[in-house]
Every structure is written in C-alpha cells, then in structure tokens.
Amino acid sequence: MTKRVLILSLSIMVSMLILGTGAHVQAQLDSIDIGTAADKPGTTSLLPDGTFTVIGAGHDVWDNADGFRYVYREISGDFQADVQVTFFERVAEWSKAGLMARQSVDAGAKNALSTAAAGDTLGAQITWRTDTDGSTDELDFWELGGPTKFNDGEWIRLTRSGDDFSASWSADGVTWANDYATVIIAMDDPILIGLVVSSVETEILMEARFKNFTIDGVSVTAAVSSDGKLSATWGAIKLSY
C-alpha cells in the first residue's frame, strides 16, 4: 500500500535553465515511499549544488509489487532523462539507485527502471514490468559487454520514444554507450519520471546521492536558504525551469 510521507511539506522555488533557451514553465516534484518502503519512511534533501540526497528502504523493485522511495514528477510524451549517481550505499547485492518511468505510484504499476545495482558483478541494469501487477524482468549491461561493476560518479540514462523505453550508461556523462536495452511498455500519459532508491532490506534505510539530474537537457539546481540545506522530507516542491 502506498503511503505519502508528509512529515514536512515545503514549497520552494527551484531555478532550472534550459540550456541555450532561457524558457520557463512550471512543474512539480513529489517525494514518496511506495509499497513496503512506507513501513520505514525515508527522507529527501536538496543541497545548494543541486545534489539530491535520497534515503529509502523497501524490499526491491521486483516481482509483482515494488518497495522503494521515489522522487518524481509527471511528464507526457517522449523524453531523455540523465543523472549522475555520485554515491549509494551497498546495503545488499541488489540495492538500487536509478531513474524510473512509471504509470502510477501504485506498488504494482507498470514501469521501466534504469539503475545502478550494488553487487560487484552487476553494474548497470534495466528492469521493467509490462503489465499492472505483473512480473518484473531484467537485463544487466554486463551481459552485453558492459562493466561488471557500477562505480560512484558514473551516469545512467532512461529514454522514452512512444512505447519504447531504453537504458544507457556513461562513465563520465559525455560518452554514452549505445542504448543497451529497449523494452516495450504501453503507458498512458501522463506518466511519472524520477529518482529511485531501494535498499532491498526492508528494515534498513539506504542513502543515495544524485547530481546533474536532467530531463531533455533541463538541469535542476536548488535555490535554498542560507543554512545551505533543505529539510529532510518534503511532499511537494515547486520547480521553475
């Protein structure tokens, strides 16, 4: 059962720049614990340099229902989302920190997840659920010749083109591997896109830090108070970009 964490609800303006255009629109980010993660609520913080620190638990993004912390917004149509995973705790072999497109916040919702996995032989991977409350499948990049370990500071990408969702990986955010996997998932607009943390240990909170989170080249940077840190848990953050 999905449980919104609203210990503290903040509304701040976050400055975002579309490179080379200076255009401005309105969007919204929510932070939520989904499925089993709601039994041990996590936190989300946003630092002045644009780093998201996300702490969450949950049993996994797997099988017929998921458990994880999600920092997300609605989106329609095609997109390319990139993020640098600067750090994540290796709580368990299958602990995950990544980018997810999802039909809804229901635990059994359709989704595609491009993620870093904690195990020393796992590296980057894509997991997906094509049917509501259906099974989850996965493909590890190393099976196709990619790295067998994900290092802090590396990058992941999730791209949507119609019903096609593709995953990619980069060591430096400049040179990207060709999309190593594309899966077909029929999702109705609007869908959700955002950051994922799952410790895969329901009683243990895991921390991950994300930087350079962009959607179609739009970079999120925080305009926060002078104390240098946004409070731990927020329900709705208004963005301007």
Task: For this entry, give a set of tags.
single chain; 241 residues; 17-stranded mixed sheet
Task: Give the helix/strand layout.
Elements: E1 14-18, E2 26-34, E3 43-46, E4 52-56, E5 68-75, E6 79-88, E7 96-102, E8 111-117, E9 124-129, E10 137-140, E11 155-161, E12 164-170, E13 181-184, E14 191-198, E15 206-215, E16 218-221, E17 236-240
Parallel strand pairs: 1-17
Antiparallel strand pairs: 1-16, 2-5, 2-17, 3-4, 4-15, 5-14, 6-11, 6-15, 7-8, 7-14, 8-9, 9-10, 11-12, 12-13, 15-16
- How many separate domains? 1
* Helix segment tally: 0
Named at the architecture level, the CATH assignment is: Sandwich
Q: Write down the secondary-structure element order.
A: EEEEEEEEEEEEEEEEE
CATH class: Mainly Beta
How far apart the termini lie comes to: 33 Å
Briefly summarize what is shown.
The protein has 241 residues and is mostly beta strands.
Structure description:
Helices cover 0% and strands 46% of the residues. The chain has strands at 14-18, 26-34, 43-46, 52-56, 68-75, 79-88, 96-102, 111-117, 124-129, 137-140, 155-161, 164-170, 181-184, 191-198, 206-215, 218-221, 236-240. The protein has a 17-stranded mixed beta sheet that branches. Mean pLDDT is 83; it is low at 1-27 and 221-241.
